[in-house]
Specification:
The complex is a heterodimer of chains A (about 80) and B (about 675).
Chain A (H helix, E strand, L loop, with lengths): L14 H19 L2 H21 L7 H14 L3
Chain B lengths: L1 E8 L7 E5 L8 E6 L5 H13 L15 H5 L4 E10 L6 E10 L3 E10 L2 E4 L3 H8 L2 H7 E3 L12 H10 L3 H25 L2 H47 L4 H57 L9 H10 L13 H13 L2 H57 L4 H50 L5 H43 L5 E4 L6 E4 L11 H18 L18 E4 L7 H14 L3 E5 L6 H7 L3 E10 L11 E4 L2 E4 L1 E2 L6 E7 L2
Parallel strand pairs in B: 3-12, 3-13, 8-11, 11-12, 13-16
Antiparallel strand pairs in B: 1-2, 1-4, 4-5, 5-6, 6-7, 9-10, 13-17, 14-15
Helix pairs in contact in B: 6-7, 6-13, 7-8, 7-12, 8-11, 13-14, 14-15, 15-16
The chains are: A mainly alpha (about 80), B alpha/beta (about 675).
Chain lengths: ~80, ~675
């Protein structure tokens, strides 16, 4: 009976996702250790940093004034 | 990202098409190109650099002449470089072809293709993808012309700091903070208009004015620093060319020695000047106070004599006076007499421990001031005299250097005269650019100071005005967020620089036999090397050169986040091959092996271009276990040998010729040999 070729599972494929999950959990734990006021600021700072990253990605073509408008609106929408 | 192959068509010294496959396996990741001076090692580095960026390294000359000379004679009107690269690891890796073409008629263009099941699919906006894979700020670290390593300034210029910030991933937060300051300005303007305060409007206009000019001034400063480093690199190349000519070799060597001495003297002069300023600052208070302390000392003695101060006294003596009712001066001191009461009173106040301690402290302080006032002028005099000696020595060195320039300019060889003229012109330009840099740096510092002062003024004025609570809240939110981001940024910056120092010291420990330490200055990112006693070690020394290699290796490791510590908030890691032209010629032979081994272990892929002189047994032993591919760059000339030497390289038991005479074409070609 011919042996059917079964591809080996790629152990590395899920590893990076797993490491990312751990890193996120560590981030959450670290955030919880901060005083309440700082927790709010820290989480808003992370959000706005992600927004800036999206706005400045190569190819997004966002002008400086468009970025300033978007950031300004982001802050207005947040209560802190 | 890994570089899988390079294909060059009619590019510079390479006639026709050459395809070079590079080593990229994890255990055999080093590709070595062996070639003599002029064979085309720098052309090969620039083929990769140009393909990625459309630009060249500073030492690359005649960049408008990209098409091979022989090919041009045959009617070829374009040249091209194509790189095959893999982005990502293992089975998920995606391959891309990057092809840049230069035409004699209309400049250069780049195309990027994604390889999908063997087919090439064009990537729209391919240059953006390249910038994402290897950000422009990092390219010069990864594709490095190590022959110009001497010109690598680690002394903390604005452009160096900016590039390093990009490398460490701070540019995203920097841009965010700059954008948020614009949001803040917008809110402040809105408030100034709504409360209709002329004073507030004026301050805000002044802030806007500073904000408008500062970015341009900073950009200009970076441009000037780049211009200076390019001019310096070119001057070093001209100096190397002068040193390579038999007629000027000796004079140029003497000049290099004198220039090294001048650098040492200038370094010492800078240090001595700063120490002198410090000494004068320290000496001023004792010298001023000296007049007072002399009077104070006199007054203390006077008061002691008058019995108004608790002078040190013998308990026994006082007991004897009171017991015998007779003072040492012969006057009677009867019990209950005013004299006896006076002594009792004095003792009550004078003998308290605290008062005695205070008097003692004052006396010590006075003695210290007196000593400093005596000794510090001597120290100042000593520094001044050292500075005068240094000035005399610098004057002598300058005179000798002028004489050398005259000697070189008067040599009856046209080529040398031209090189010498070019060198003098380059020096003139370097001095002029340096002067401009100095002025602009001062202007930037003054504008930044004004901005801080204006912001404080804005706050003070606005506090006295009736600002709407909603507007005030929105401005407070932005201000609070900026302050938080700046605090985080400062903390992360400290962490990252500490980590960089640690990485550097790990590398230095592997490299150096001496116990030297590197430190990165937080203010300007200057990298300092210190000896066992904490004294600075010059960057032109053998160890200073090693520091520069250690720095490149540490930066590449940091960019790839191949570090043991996590630094939050930094941008994505950059993993790319390290491509180095002529890395070891600038190094002291004692360090070459350890530097080579470290570069191989610390990078994901390494491409080295080496002359036979740089391929000694220590480098060979260090690198051989990692070498996956090896090529010779053979330089061919059409003329007869006519007594000229054949350069060779021995690898194992085989000796290979690195140049040929009597060839059909003047070109450089590649020959793959066993790794």
């Amino acid at each position: 009976m011919p042996i059917e070729h079964v591809p080996k599972p790629n152990k590395l494929a899920g590893l990076s996702e797993f490491l990312q999950e751990i890193a996120d959990e560590v981030d959450e734990d670290n955030l919880a250790l901060l005083p309440k006021d700082e927790q709010v600021l820290e989480s808003i700072a992370r959000e706005i940093l992600k927004l800036e990253r999206d706005l400045t990605l190569p190819g997004t073509g966002q002008s400086e004034s468009a970025r300033v408008d978007r950031l300004s609106q982001f802050i207005v929408d947040k209560d802190f | 990202m890994k570089l899988l192959s390079i294909e060059m068509s009619d590019f510079r010294s390479f006639f026709g098409t050459h395809r070079l496959i590079l080593a990229s396996a994890d255990d055999r990741k080093v590709t070595v190109f062996h070639g003599e001076n002029g064979a085309g090692k720098t052309n090969l580095l620039n083929a990769v650099y140009w393909c990625f960026t459309g630009k060249f390294t500073p030492r690359f000359t005649d960049s408008q002449l990209l098409i091979n000379k022989e090919s041009r004679k045959n009617g070829v009107v374009s040249c091209a470089v194509e790189l095959l690269i893999a982005e990502g690891d293992g089975p998920d890796a995606q391959q891309y072809r990057v092809r840049r073409t230069a035409r004699s008629s209309d400049g250069s263009s780049v195309e990027v293709f994604k390889l999908v099941e063997g087919s090439s699919v064009p990537v729209p906006g391919g240059e953006r993808l390249l910038r994402k894979m290897l950000p422009p700020g990092l390219i010069s670290w990864f594709f490095f012309d190590a022959e110009a390593i001497g010109a690598l300034e680690l002394s903390g210029s604005q452009s160096f700091k900016q590039e390093l910030r990009k490398t460490l991933g701070f540019d995203l937060i920097d841009t965010l903070v700059a954008d948020l300051e614009k949001v803040q300005n917008r809110r402040q303007r809105e408030i100034a208009n709504s409360v209709n305060s002329e004073q507030l409007k004026q301050v805000q206009t002044a802030i806007d004015n500073v904000d408008r000019v500062l970015p341009d001034q900073k950009t200009k400063l970076v441009q000037l620093e780049h211009a200076r480093s390019e001019l310096t690199a070119r001057r070093d190349t001209v100096s190397a060319e002068l040193a390579a000519k038999p007629q000027s070799e000796m004079i140029q060597r003497r000049r290099s020695e004198l220039e090294a001495r001048r650098r040492r003297h200038e370094d010492e002069k800078r240090q001595a000047t700063s120490q002198l300023a410090q000494l004068i600052g320290q000496a001023a208070p004792p010298l001023i106070l000296h007049q007072l302390t002399q009077r104070l000392e006199g007054r203390l003695q006077d008061q002691e004599l008058k019995g108004r101060l608790p002078a040190p006294f013998s308990d026994q003596l006082v007991k004897d006076i009171l017991g015998e009712a007779l003072c040492v001066c012969g006057r009677p001191v009867h019990a209950d007499s005013p004299e006896a009461h006076k002594i009792q009173d004095l003792l009550r106040y004078a003998t308290t421990g605290t008062l005695n301690q205070r008097i003692g402290q004052v006396r010590y302080l006075v003695a210290d001031i007196e000593r400093d006032a005596r000794e510090m002028p001597l120290g100042i005099q000593e520094k001044r005299s050292r500075l005068a000696t240094l000035d005399t020595e610098l004057g002598t060195v300058e005179a000798d250097l002028t004489e050398i320039s005259k000697q070189l300019a008067s040599l009856p060889i046209e080529e040398i005269r031209k090189l010498e003229q070019e060198r003098a012109e380059l020096n003139r330009k370097i001095n002029s650019v340096s002067e401009e840099i100095g002025k602009l740096s001062q202007l930037i510092a003054s504008n930044e100071k004004s901005k801080v002062e204006l912001k404080v003024r804005y706050d003070l004025i606005s506090k006295k005005l009736d600002v709407g609570s909603k507007q005030k809240k929105e401005l407070d939110k932005v201000t609070k967020l900026i302050a938080y981001l700046k605090k985080k940024l400062a903390q992360q910056e400290r962490d990252a620089l500490l980590l960089l120092s640690q990485e550097l010291n790990v590398v230095l420990k592997r490299y150096l036999v001496k116990d030297f330490k590197a430190k990165v200055d937080e203010r300007n990112y200057a990298v300092l090397l210190q000896d066992e006693d904490g004294k600075p070690v010059g960057q032109s020394t053998g160890e200073g050169q090693v520091l520069k290699f250690a720095f490149i290796a540490a930066v590449v490791a940091m960019a790839a986040k191949k570090t043991t510590h996590k630094i939050e908030w930094l941008s994505e890691p950059t993993v790319a091959p390290l491509v180095l032209d002529a890395p070891f010629t600038a190094l002291d032979p004692v360090y070459q092996g350890s530097v080579a081994r470290n570069l191989a272990t610390q990078t994901t892929q390494l491409v080295l271009m080496l002359s036979s002189a740089a391929w000694g047994s220590t480098v060979s032993e260090a690198l051989d276990p990692f070498v996956g591919r090896r090529y010779l760059i053979v330089s061919k000339v059409t003329g007869a040998q006519d007594g000229r030497p054949v350069k060779s390289l021995t690898l194992g038991d085989t000796t290979h010729a690195l140049n040929e005479y009597g060839a059909q074409l003047a070109e450089s070609s590649f020959e793959e040999v066993e790794a």
